[in-house]
Design brief:
The chain is 68% helix and 3% strand. With 240 residues, it is mainly alpha-helical. It holds the Pfam family GntR.
């Protein structure tokens, strides 16, 4: 494991932790910081980035939560995994932190939506989910990113949950969710055929569980899908 020197540019904007997160992420994704490399100390990052220690700790905490670095008590923080070098071409580096944070409320909200949809969906609502799934399959077949079709699928599940606040909440988050979906599906489009197949299969399982009115399976498959989506972005399980 080799120590590395971070090349940081002082920031002058809000959400400094996101900017710092993005700059470190860029250097991991580009290969400037290899897996196993040790990051500089918090004090060094504070000095180079010209921010307070809480900002540095927040950025490192988010990087660790996303599976990109690992902290070893008394030793330091090390690069754990390297995301695709294409990641920063799909979103601004500081925005990536925001898009990844979006998965936390999505897990809470959409997991419950899927379970309720399995219990409450009408035939018309199930057809709407199925049509959105077919549209996503078509977008993939045409070589498109399919983020709009993906949003339509998740929105249809929220509508089928039988509470008008669920789709309204997704609409409130639409800008962030669309950016997150563009990023995730952009990587999927550039990835392997097997990766695209698995993404579609995850959606099909959600649809099947809702169709079969199996609440537990619907919740399980939605949670699995969102967890895998996040992991595909960060490269935390080596998916191509």
């Amino acid at each position: 494991m080799n120590d590395v020197t971070l090349k940081l540019k002082p920031a002058r904007r809000e959400r400094l932790a996101d900017v710092l997160y993005g700059q470190i992420l860029e250097q991991i994704a580009s290969g400037q910081m290899a897996e196993g490399a040790k990051l500089p100390s918090e004090a060094h990052i504070c000095r180079d980035f010209q921010v307070s220690r809480p900002v540095v700790r927040e950025a490192l905490m988010r990087l660790q939560a996303d599976g990109l670095v690992v902290s070893r008590q008394g030793i330091g923080t090390f690069v754990k995994s390297r995301p695709s070098d294409k990641l920063t071409s799909l979103a601004a580096s500081a925005e990536i932190a925001i898009y990844l944070r979006a998965f936390e409320p999505r897990l809470a909200l959409e997991t419950e939506c899927a379970g309720l949809a399995a219990m409450r969906r009408t035939k018309a609502q199930l057809n709407q989910i199925g049509e959105a799934l077919a549209a996503l399959e078509g977008a993939f077949a045409r070589g498109e990113t399919g983020w709009e079709e993906d949003f339509a699928f998740h929105h249809a599940v929220a509508e089928a949950a039988g509470n008008e606040l669920f789709p309204r909440l997704l609409e409130e988050l639409r800008d962030i969710l669309s950016g997150s979906m563009r990023m995730a599906l952009g990587l999927t489009r550039q990835g392997s055929d097997d990766r695209r197949r698995r993404v579609l299969e995850e959606h099909r399982k959600i649809y099947s569980a809702i169709s079969g009115q199996n609440r537990d399976l619907a919740r399980l498959y939605m949670r699995y899908h969102l967890t895998e989506s996040r992991a595909r972005i960060t490269g935390s399980h080596g998916d191509l």
